[in-house]
Design brief:
This protein is α/β, with parallel strands linked by helices and 245 residues long. The chain has one domain: Metallo-dependent phosphatases (Purple Acid Phosphatase, chain A, domain 2), CATH 3.60.21.10. The protein has helices at 15-26, 53-67, 85-91, 122-132, 134-141, 145-165, 168-171, 177-184, and strands spanning 2-5, 34-38, 71-75, 94-96, 100-104, 107-112, 189-192, 199-205, 208-214, 221-228, 231-238. The strands form two sheets. Strands 4-3-2-1-10-11 form a six-stranded mixed beta sheet. A five-stranded mixed beta sheet has the order 5-6-7-9-8, with helices on one face.
């Protein structure tokens, strides 16, 4: 059995999500052969050298799961694209490229975070290309910690503001982009996150039936996609309520 999740946006300010994730690791995930986390695992990540005690605790929880036999795979999202080798080593997980093709139930399946499918958002796509450029990544990783913190807050605030202002079809995936990239990778199933709109969409890829499975985000509830002999089944579960302040 394989589990796939995305868009947890872990941060200290959401103890309800953190508790739910740790419980997920200690229960359901222990029964899985592998767990795939498809991006935006953390709300923000400014570098492995800036790991907080909270982030260290998440890495330790993942490492514990890995040592119990569950293979762990992690993909960058638009919030945590600076996650690097040190975190992966601490967490016992393998960093995957985006996009990435794996085999599930004997079928080639394409995994993505999903932000690269939003091609109508011209401004974001330009920013994404700049941020993911190897030269830009080198510069960002070597900026002083205080500068990275300020830049992360600025990008985070701008992202929230622009998302509210843009039309929904702009911040969602571009429909024509999906069959194109699926055909390019020779798959009939695509799994991604990013849009926070969990669903399974049927489509045609080179005249054949295909499907696009959108993973849910963890906010008011958690989501996980289970892949087993019965196929692909995504389900939601309730989070514990926030403790009163």
């Amino acid at each position: 059995m394989i589990l796939l999740i995305s868009d947890l946006h872990l941060e200290e300010e959401r103890p309800d999500i953190n508790r739910a994730f740790l419980h997920f690791l200690e229960t359901r995930a222990t029964k899985a052969d592998a767990l795939y986390i498809l991006g935006d695992f953390f709300e923000v990540w400014i570098g492995d050298d800036a790991m907080s005690p909270f982030q260290h605790s998440i890495a330790q929880a993942l490492r514990h799961l890995s040592e119990r036999g569950t293979r762990l795979y992690l993909m960058h999202g638009n919030r945590d694209f600076l996650l690097g080798k040190k975190f992966c080593q601490a967490a016992g997980c393998t960093l995957l490229p985006d996009p990435c093709v794996i085999e599930l139930n004997g079928e080639r399946v394409l995994l993505m975070h999903g932000d690269s499918l939003c091609t109508l958002d011209i401004g974001y796509m330009k920013l994404r290309r700049w941020l993911r450029n190897p030269i830009s990544l080198f510069i960002l990783r070597n900026l002083p910690l205080s500068t990275r913190q300020k830049l992360a807050r600025k990008l985070r605030n701008e992202s929230r503001t622009q998302t509210r202002m843009k039309a929904s079809e702009i911040v969602d995936i571009t429909p024509n982009e999906v069959p194109r990239i699926m055909a390019e990778h020779g798959v009939r199933t695509l799994i991604h996150g990013h849009t926070h709109r969990p669903a399974t969409h049927s489509l045609q890829v080179n005249g054949e039936a295909g499907q696009r499975i959108v993973l849910g985000d963890w906010d008011k509830q958690g989501w996980a996609l289970q892949v087993d002999r019965q196929g692909f089944q995504q389900s939601a579960f309730e989070l514990e309520p926030l403790e009163p302040s």
